[in-house]
Design brief:
heterodimer; A: alpha+beta; three-stranded antiparallel sheet; about 35% helix; B: alpha/beta; Pectate Lyase C-like; eleven-stranded mixed sheet; 5 helices; 12 strands; about 15% helix; about 25% strand; globular
Chain lengths: ~140, ~290
């Protein structure tokens, strides 16, 4: 019967989903061929000692005392590659291999926030095209 | 896309614009839109279309004789003129005021709002010197909203990001379907708060009503007072040092840090029993593949 026990597996290592793209650990995950749950800790709160200068400037420009919505942004992993979920695009955006990954999730999350923010604010973002196509002039 | 000017786009129908922008050349294969970040992307802090506003440029807008639509249009017009701080006088409980603002702005309401006030925001900092009705801040993406008094039910419904704060108490179903962001309640919250919560954080400095966090899939709820009862699959979690540091910082930010600190806060998380990957799914997968 569904909904009687948690059948996923725990995240044990920061590189878990880079080393093992499928990430199938529990019996249930192997049975359905799909990892159950997020590929990062969705509830990890940010460590502000790791903040980057660009993100500090963003807080200042917006008049915020903290990272605000970016507190919910984390570096995730898709198909064995580091990636960030872009809510404005409803999809994963890959992190290029030229970006060196730190050895801890908090530093990775700060990189994820910076890359996502720059992308969302750029003309290259799909929302810019969607806006041109569908906005009411 | 580069070959089509904005002026030419304005002359087209929506169908023609969509085609001209090449939006129908991709087949819907699911992976066709794979995108990578550009590490050398230009540093910007606002959307390309956001009006340039200056927080130091301040004006007042009396909305007493306006409809909600007229008031909202007037706020946009003032932003287009560069006003970064707008004080709204005489809101008188009108519904849907200050909605859909997608850039930086300081918006101050001198009075109370009705239903669905300041929803669908993406960036502004809002202060409401009064009370709010149902669904204040619903679907907010980013920004801050501070309500100085009490709030109605479904406060922060489907919140996606940003900080939503009520210094007083709030009604039932606070943060229903919350998908991110932070909701802070200075007083008590009603029944079924955190119902179907999916992500984000909720902080209740006072007491929580019955069925707290019912059917929550993820996210975190912190309660400083008593919890009447937890809902289905809402279970106690361990309050870590990182949680305490975060709570202290966040509550200090809004002047709501209790004198006795945050050590007494209870943490409620999802038991993950509703993460429902039922027995039918593998059979369906085999049938499809």
């Amino acid at each position: 019967m569904a909904g009687t026990q948690y059948r996923g597996s725990a995240i044990t290592d920061v590189d878990q989903f880079v080393a093992d793209a499928a990430g199938l650990a529990s019996e249930r995950e192997k049975e359905i061929g799909q990892h159950i749950g997020y590929r990062y800790d969705v509830n990890l709160v940010p460590d502000y000692t790791k903040i980057t200068p660009y993100l500090s400037k963003y807080m200042e420009v917006m008049g915020w005392d903290d990272l605000n919505w970016l507190e919910d942004v984390h570096m995730g992993y898709e198909d064995g590659n580091p990636a960030v979920f872009d809510r404005n695009n409803n999809g994963w955006v890959s992190i290029p291999s030229s970006v060196e990954l730190p050895d801890n999730q908090q530093d990775r999350d700060m990189i994820a926030r910076e890359l996502l923010l720059k992308f969302q604010m750029s003309d290259r973002h799909p929302l810019a095209t969607l806006r041109k196509a569908y906005m009411k002039f | 896309m580069a070959g089509v000017s904005d002026a030419a786009l304005k002359e087209m129908t929506q169908e023609e614009r969509v085609t001209a922008l090449g939006m129908r050349t991709d087949q819907l294969t699911g992976r066709a839109m794979a995108i990578s970040f550009d590490p050398d992307e230009k540093e910007r802090f606002e959307y390309p279309w956001a009006p340039e506003v200056d927080f130091n440029k301040r004006t007042e807008l009396d909305v007493d004789e306006m409809t909600s639509t007229e008031a909202n249009n007037q706020i946009r017009a003032l932003m287009a003129e560069g006003y970064g701080t707008i004080v709204i006088k005489n809101p008188r409980g009108k519904h849907s005021l200050g909605v859909g603002i997608l850039s930086r702005l300081r918006l101050i309401f001198e009075g109370s709002l009705g239903y669905f006030g300041v929803g669908l925001l993406d960036g502004p900092n809002v202060t409401i010197n009064g009370r709010v009705g149902w669904s204040c801040g619903e679907n907010m993406m980013a920004g801050t909203i501070v309500v100085k008094k009490n709030a109605g039910s479904t406060f922060g419904a489907a919140l996606r990001g940003g900080d939503l704060v009520a210094r007083g108490s709030v009604g039932a179903r606070t943060g229903i379907d919350q998908k991110g962001g932070t909701i802070i309640v200075g007083g008590d919250t009603g029944a079924l708060s955190g119902f179907m919560m999916q992500r984000g954080r909720m902080v209740v400095c006072g007491n929580a009503g019955k069925d707290l966090g019912d059917s929550m899939y993820d996210g975190t709820i912190y309660v400083g007072g008593e919890i009447k009862s937890c809902g289905v699959d809402a279970v106690p979690g361990e309050l870590t040092d990182l949680d305490k540091a975060w709570l202290t910082r966040k509550l200090t930010q809004y002047g709501l840090l209790p004198d006795k600190g945050v050590d007494h806060f209870k943490k409620v998380v999802a038991g993950r029993m509703l993460w429902n990957y039922d027995n039918l799914e593998p059979s369906e997968k085999k049938l499809i593949l």
